[in-house]
Amino acid sequence: MKLSAVLLLTAAIIGCAFAAKFPASFSRCKQEDGNCLLEAITATFRSFHKGVPEIGLVPLDPLRIDTMDIVQGDGPINIVLNFKKVDLTGFQHANIKKASGFTSNPTKMDLNLVVPVASLIGGYRINGKVLILPIQGEGASNMTMADCNISLKWTGKLVDKNGKQFYQVDKFKVHFDTSRFYMDFSNLFNGDKALGDNMNVFLNDNWQDILKELKPAISAAFTKIFEAVVSNVFNKVPYNELYLASGSVAVEIAAPVFERAGPRSAHTGTISILIGCRSVYSLTMRGSGSDCWEHVSHLTSATYSRCNAGDEPCIVQAISDTFHKYQSGVPGLGLASLDPLRIDEMDIVQGTGPVNIVLNFKNVDITGFKDVVVKKAKGFTTNPNVMEMNLVLPVASLVGSYKIKGKVLILPIQGEGASNMTMVNCDFLMKWNGGLEKHANGKEYYQMNKIKASFDTTRFYMHLSNLFNGDKALGDNMNQFLNDNWEDILKELKPAIIGAFTKIFRAIITNVFDNVPYEELFLPNA
Ligand SMILES: *[C@@H]1O[C@H](CO)[C@@H](O)[C@H](O)[C@H]1NC(C)=O
Ligand SMILES: *[C@@H]1O[C@H](CO)[C@@H](O)[C@H](O)[C@H]1NC(C)=O
Ligand SMILES: *[C@@H]1O[C@H](CO)[C@@H](O)[C@H](O)[C@H]1NC(C)=O
Prior knowledge:
Signal peptide: 1-19
Pfam families: JHBP
Bound molecules: 2-acetamido-2-deoxy-beta-D-glucopyranose
GO biological process, one term: circadian rhythm
Family: Belongs to the TO family.
Keywords: Biological rhythms, Signal
């Protein structure tokens, strides 16, 4: 996935009246005296971080940034992040590690500095979407970097102005790295503490990925700042006057006059989201209980059509008829209501992976069985062993109430309300084995052993009302997400749904076989 970050940085315009003389405490060095240069620039950061108005040196620490915007247009992080009145702090403790190129005929120059703790502290406003959820908030922000290693490189040349030689900065590049990036955004999600705390934990747990995303924007901010600082020095003071008389550098490295609103720069990057998941399901289901199903030992219903054993077309038809005609149940056959088919409880527990939830369903009615199309019914022979049945439900809905608790991706999710999961062209394939067993009454009954089922659907709809305790924006979005990603969600839920349906079918089928001697299910042999 691609995303772009656009950074627009404006820094305060400081009216600057440049004084030709350096304060006495400014140390100047001989040209190319490396050690002197490092110490002198470090001393500048230490002693003059509050600024020296007489020479137009703005405060370096804190260095105020009026506005800084990060706009990420597409991809999983889709946000507009505006920073206002951000103070960049920590540069007074900068240690200059390297300074080169300050020669009598300068072209390339570079500076390397390490700031032990650099913080961007100010106000932020965020609007957008992180992964699946709308994120908004406005409050105080703190982005802090430890051991911020900044490398500045620029090229330029000496140019003649009014008979004096000035160094003119051409291309300017900033790279930085940090050993740790901390973020804290207060009042996220309009103050929802659970969501906000979690988002902050997520941001910090994944600081390396987040920093990778924000780096172009922060680098661009640093570039603007340092380019202004460095250019300003060279624009104000003729190159030779920066040095001691014998040809040396004055280290008034910082007398920045910021230009307003730099050009927008666009960056691209990539983000990878932790979606490759391993889900653990467990499913517990309690059916209507066999006590609801009357046990009869004999098939009496004359309207129930019987077939010859092994006559597949007839058996297919008979099973179809059973579903169609007896949707409210066939007590004589030990069948409770088929449509709706009530499930008292169904729990989906996903222990690991991005979807980490406990989802309890209660009083779920499965509807759609009355329109079932029986595609296949194999193995109903006089000496039965393996049997196979293929059922297609044009529309199957599971409507009931749910309670959810857990985490979806990074955010805590909770809610309790009405749920509706609907599947179109729900195609069930079941296969089981078993054999005939003689019961106490001397008659043979088919005893089911193992059953296996699989299913597919052409579309899965899901709606959970009252998610996030009724927060409409978050809830609507989560439902939208669930439906936009129904194939992935279904993949996750499939084992649970197959488990539920298998238990239902097993209960129905074994109930029929347990109550009616096998041969009485069929027409008497001729
Ligand atoms: C900013 O965050 C850093 C790191 O968590 C912390 O040490 C510092 O005190 C915070 N600064 C402010 C002003 O909150
Ligand atoms: C800072 O980064 C430069 C490369 O950009 C590297 O050579 C140097 O060792 C780093 N310094 C520290 C203190 O990490
Ligand atoms: C369940 O959802 C399906 C598909 O969106 C819809 O057609 C059906 O009317 C819903 N059922 C109930 C009871 O809300």
